Amino acid sequence: MDILVRANISEDPRNRLSEEELLAEMRTVIAAGHLTTGNSLCFILYELARHPDVQERVHAEVSSMLSAVSARGDAEYTMGDLDGMHYILAVLKEALRLHPVVFGPFLYSTIDDVLPLSKPIRTTDGKLLSELPISAGQNVHISISGITGKNTLGQQLFILIGSRLKDIWGPDAHEFRPTRFLDGSVAVKNNFGVFAGLGNFASGGVSCLGWRFAIIEMQTFLVEIMRQFELSLPPADQPEKGMQLPLMVATLP
């Protein structure tokens, strides 16, 4: 934010942001660039603590990558090294699928339109619909998680994208299984979103501009944490300590 404020102190008024624009950019930096990525990373670490077998495989992949970097004489790993760690990327995708920190965007229709459905639905009066009419002025709520929700034809329209829908992700859609992104057992039947068929970064004209940077951030944090630490859950009889992520952290031998 300091950089943003300093950059706005320009001798040329044409290059300056208005106060309203500056505040809007700050909200974006704070909310979109910090909280969502940080909260997503918390859920990734939580799932690693819950699944020691997954964490062990992540440790092995990080160790292998760092050894390869050292063997070629480099001091730092590159983006190519990060993207080459396919299992960690699958872990990241699976955690985002199960725990979308933004549960769904709210959209506002400016024109009358028709929304085709992936499969027909039956209304309360028994009609079978394969598409939904959307009226100008109607609010549309897109549920990314797809856990609960309903379709209505009133002023509010709820649409399930479904990061937990079994007909998209398989019968174990509610389970944490990163290999679903590696073994081809699930063919994602939707092209929604900009990343892995997920809606975490929205889609189309309202998609997150910084989605790629957010993925790189999480990849890098995971490497730096997993190269040094081992995560586990606290004992079941340990009392909760308020709003804290229940993790125990130990340094690797």
TrEMBL record:
It comes from the Eukaryota. Keywords: Heme, Iron, Metal-binding, Monooxygenase, Oxidoreductase. GO terms for molecular function: heme binding; iron ion binding; monooxygenase activity; oxidoreductase activity, acting on paired donors, with incorporation or reduction of molecular oxygen. Belongs to the cytochrome P450 family. Its cofactor is heme. It comes from Grifola frondosa (Maitake). Pathway: Secondary metabolite biosynthesis. This is Cytochrome P450. InterPro entries: Cyt_P450, Cyt_P450_E_grp-I, Cyt_P450_sf, Cytochrome_P450_monoxygenase. Pfam families: p450. Gene3D superfamilies: Cytochrome P450. PANTHER family: CYTOCHROME P450, CYTOCHROME P450 12A4, MITOCHONDRIAL-RELATED. Heme binds at C208.
